[in-house]
Amino acid sequence: MAKPDTGGPDSESGLPLLRIRGLGVSFGPVDAISPLDLDVHDGEFLTILGPSGSGKTTLLRAIAGFQPPSAGRIEFDGRDIADLPINRRPFNTVFQDYALFPHMTVRENVGFGLRVRGTARRQMTERVDIALGIVGLEELDSRYPAQLSGGQQQRTALARAMICEPRLILLDEPLAALDATLRRQMQNFLKSVQRQSGITFLFVTHDQSEAITMSDRICVMRTGNIEQIGTPRELYYRPKSRFVAAFFGASNIVEPCRIEESRDDMTVVSTPVGTFSVKGPPPENTSGLALAIRPEAFGSDAETRMNSLEFEVAAVSFVGSETITELRHRNTSLMFTMKSRSDPAARPPETGSFLRVGFDPAECALVTGAES
Amino acid sequence: MRRLRLLDISLASVTTLVYLALYLPILLVFVLSFFSMRRGRVNWETFSLGWYAKLFDNEALGDALRNSLLVGGTAVAAAAVFATVAALHVNARPSSRSARILEYVIFLPFLLPPIITGLSLLIYFRETGIPRGIATIIVGHAVFVLAIIYRIVLTRLNVLSRSLVEAAHDLGASKFQTFRYIVLPNLRMPLLTAGILAFALSFDETMITLFLTGTDATLPVRLYAMMRVGFTPEINALITLILGFSIVLTVAVAFAWRRNAGLENNSATRI
Q1: Same domain, A154 and A293
Q2: What is the DSSP string of B74-92?
Q3: What are the tens digits of pLDDT across the range B120-167?
Q4: By CA distance, what is B164's nearest residue in A?
Q5: Which domain holds residue A286?
Q6: pLDDT at res. B266
Q7: Number of domains making up chain B
Q8: How are strands ordered across the β-sheet holding A332-339?
Q9: Cβ contact A99–B161 (<8 Å)
Q10: Which of A169, A308, A327, A352 has the fewest CB atoms nearer than 10 Å to its CB?
């Protein structure tokens, strides 16, 4: 991970807001985070995504200052803050359990950051009113946290973190405790607050669909390393590793894969089920090379696509909006999903018949590494 | 069916007996503090507050009561400060050597028979030439009640979510501000409870006090001394007053807890 693969569409627009170089955290002999680099750009919604134990929360805690790093630099706006005490760091955190002060009302909780800075009472009232307005809690300002619903607690925690007008807010799985419906609402809400306020959000989650819907960029972590950074589309359509491909939903893996030739941003690979063209240059490290194809990338209009293959239909299942067809050829089996139709002419193929399907070079990706 | 009723009745009678055994003597004392007895019967026509008047004239008892309140108040206050500091340290660094040593050191006097604590303190004060009196009693009681306050405070600190302290720091609070605005308010109820419990322990502590007392006696020691020459009826008035005080205290604490319970119950789910 020595190579600074920090990505980012706006890298050229000067210094990133948060610049992390060689940051490592170890608990005794165990490396929770291997030295890594990460840039967070001003105004973006960056999500750190990973399964539990991937080090994502540890990374966030190191940035916030709760976890002293064992190596590396953390620069905020060009200034090294690695040694800055927590209460001097110029950003705030929304905690997973919200960490609302139980003995204070919503108003007191939200105003806490101003109170410890000795802000004048009148100014404090005004600013708390504004923050409460943003999160829609004006009516509940005299309630105690125990008297609030999960979503309202979440909003209070967000208002409290925003009150000192930080340029960066760290959010540690803030939606994990909410039920599915509320969670979706809060995703939209968080995203709109982020967009309107222009505050940079560094958001930690283990939920890939949450990451995809909310983020400008996603940083996928695995066992203390950054696996890949990119926009949700890049990660979904152009995963670099099997881990990322698998993490973003079911992907067809065709292996082993050998590179035949590469030119003009196109790589030709041979696999046990045929030779295919893949968009993009081949990866530098080709250990465990495989071809990943999204189930929805296949089309039955094989003749119009650059890549095609003929498989036997092993099973067809209708799951409502989608119909999933399982194709098999020798040892390789592929899943192929398409939109369900009621039109009998567009009936799905019969089990046991042979089906030719095609996919575009841009709809598949070469991935490396071991399976999860 | 019949058997069941029999069981109910016998259970009820046993319960009644237990309550009678518990409260009848207290009730008797209460009655006797207002009325006098003749030939084993209460004479209901003799209502008077005379024993209370007498009690307030009894300087020996009054002094003893004052001493008890002074000893209890001071010892509890001193122990509370020390216990809180110790609990904060242990909570912050639970696995450190000093924390483990502290745990044992604080608990030892509470587990030791009071006679040992009293005796060793007595020897210590004699060898160092410190004259015995109210001050030495206070030291003895503070040592004795330290463990109970420490334990209650530490328990509260342990359940006080770590992220509350982190959140306060994160929002810009200094260590002192975090303690003042976040930790201390959450310790108010446990400190109140522990303080009352410790005060009650101190109030009737006799053994350690006997060793450490000089010329000033606390109430239990005074009563113990009075027993040898026989009680006068104003003792009933004294017990009634203490009983009334205890009831008021209990009710007050119950109310405080109930008011607090709503706030304590932070429903934020922990994962």
Answers
A1: no
A2: HHHHHHHHHHHHHHHHHHH
A3: 999 999 999 888 889 999 999 999 899 999 999 999 998 887 889 999
A4: A99
A5: 243-367
A6: 43
A7: 1
A8: A332-339, A322-329, A307-318, A354-359
A9: yes
A10: A352
